[in-house]
User: Fold these one by one.
Assistant:
Number 1:
Amino acid sequence: MSENHPRLAASPTVRTVDGTTVVTLRGELDLLAVVSLRSRLDALTRDPHPDLVLDLRPATFIDCSGLGVLCRTRNRVRARCGRLRLITDGRVLRIIRAAGLDGVFELPPGCPSRSAVR
């Protein structure tokens, strides 16, 4: 990010829709943001059978530490026999794919296909 722009820290918005927790992530998902984000996602995945959707469309940036938090959340959800889905755009999906995490996350219908971002 350019030094001329103020840093946009990740700020999650959490809501429940038909029993599913939807977390909208805005701003930068980077090393500075992951500590508080990890704590928030850990709290949302502490109970058995979490049903979680992470909406990454408003995220402006994601680095390896942000990807690490996504993987950690996925592992916590799976360990508790829950479900995690990502809503993303082609930009973030390309980053996930470049990191070799292609096929690891569930994408709901309507998200860009993996073949569309090759």
Number 2:
Amino acid sequence: MSKEEMIKEAVEDAKKAAAAQEIEENCEENAKAEEAETAEEHTEEAGEETSEEKEEKKGFFKKKNKKDKKDEKIEELTDRLTRQMAEFDNFRKRTEKEKTQMYEVGAKSVVEKILPVVDNFERGLAAVPEEQKEDPFVQGMEKIYKQMMTTFEEIGVKPIEAVGKEFDPDFHNAVMHVEDEELGENIVAEEFLKGYMYRDSVVRHSMVKVAN
């Protein structure tokens, strides 16, 4: 090979080496650029995710602060049920009270109708002469009278005390007045018709004579 050919070949080799080096440098620059672009994209994505997380957190706290529709409905139904239970309890108490009052009114009405029979027993027994009190018929009437008074006492009926007591318009009905130095002022001197009470209410007032 001549000297000129050797120089020409060396020049060609040098050109090829320079071109190869240039290509390699361009590849490295492109790779770096791609890496930088990828890192930038990741950074932007990370920033977007952070913003989304913040929005989600805001939404979460908003949901926490604002009651759910189901919870509101449950509270509404619970309040309605509580009100209805209170109304029902008041209705039950009112009904029981009305039943008790109706029972007492009915019982007083029955007792009031029986009292004239008791009065006739007392008048009849008081009119029996002393010598006839041992008569079996009279003793039988006395037993019936005592049984009736015992039954009255068991159901809550009791006579009103009158003679010797201070006159009380809530229990006594004054039909006569008398002056008597032996008795105090406003004292019941005599009872004409016995009064009766059923539990705490008056069935019939005592008809009395009041002294002074």
Number 3:
Amino acid sequence: MQKFEGMSAVVTGGASGLGLATVKRLLARGAQVVIADLPGSRGAEAARELGDATTFVPADVTSEADMIAAYDAAESRGNLRALIHCAGRGGAVRVVEKDGTPGSLEAYERVVRTNLTGSFNALRLAAARMARNTPDEQGERGVCVMTASVAAYEGQIGQVPYASSKAGVVGMTLVAARDLASKAIRVCTIAPGLFDTPILSGLSGEVREALRKTLLHPPRMGMPDEFAALAMHIVENPMLNGETIRLDGALRMAPR
């Protein structure tokens, strides 16, 4: 998919971090972009700042009605050809907590519902719209870029819900690509390492410094625009399909 002009894209979690950087890249290429993010996010403000080619739709990715509204808004601006799904949440739970109590099932389910069920919800509803598109000059109807994490492979102590949910996204990727191949829709996933995003901004300076010391090259956290650059390459490169790509500077997470 080399032509962005005239197409629309939805970016979940597009009000900040990885999602906002991706929105900016899409706009620079001429796409019409819908930011789908929570009502309390900076989505409306971001859309105003970014101009007329951007629309904000308040949306919880686990809500069918909310995501239908986001895709309706996108299709009002052009054929929906791209979903970049960045929305997600963290949450610390151990299997058995330090005080000996079982880990919270409710907290576990909240993270899995947002990160895994929300990913499937966003994907299925987007793909159903894309399947109605006329194939472009490369024979494609659309592409969906999901977001996992290196925690899918090396989850740290206390990350059992987050690691489980992101491993589920990795497991979904090839199957979804196979399911959608007959409809000429591609699915890939990016598994970022340590990126300078709002999720990490909540960590203490001590924890951030400990994480920084685990980095190899480059010896720094990733920048959101580096994620966005890879997302754009996936959208443009028709041979990328069914693959999860680690974007981590050779990071391998330690247990803690």
Number 4:
Amino acid sequence: MNRNAKFWLLFFGLTFGVLAAVVLAVEIGPVPIPYDMVVRIVLSKLLPNAVAVDWTSVQEQIVWVFRLPRALLAVLVGAALSVSGTALQALVRNPLADPYTFGISNGASVGAVLVITLGAGVATGFSLSGAAFIGALITMVIVYGIAQQGGQVSPGRLILAGVAISYALSAITTYLVLRASSPGTNSAAIALSWLAGTLGAAKWEQLGIPGITVFATTILLMLQSRRNQRTARQAIEQRSASA
């Protein structure tokens, strides 16, 4: 079996596994719904009048309104973690690299916890997500700046700078949460809930931006990877020809 055949076999196998996991996640819950009914409800939404309706409105609401958006958001989160982890591992040539190694996750935590503890825009999800993104971006810029030496960035310095900044930001997050845990306020509870993460409030309208971002970023990184591979092959061929 050649390389392309293995790739497509793995691709379709993993795709089928993800779809099966989504159906299983929607099926399981306090109100169990048979997997075939889950599939038919989804098909009825995608292809109206294509499936005979033999379920109640409550079952349809459970599947389409509550459980399916949560399952799809979980898939997007997993895909985003996978793509970002792969990019960071390629950047530092280390299979153990992840967003925590570079302090990116802790930078996002500091940004979101600052918004929560300061009480600015707590009610709006965009304020929290925007603050988390800005915190992660600033952290990456700082780590990248510290890791530079003579205009060059080595993978080792990048990891060491990321770990050091990560510990510092983790301490800042802990301090902010403890400082907000005064009697009569629930800022600390909100912050801890955000840090723990939840998909319970997922809605269809919240899937658009993450989906487009993950898809566009994945395509961009794949194109960049192919360009780098061609450049590396050309360099190897030039060295071989000169030798």
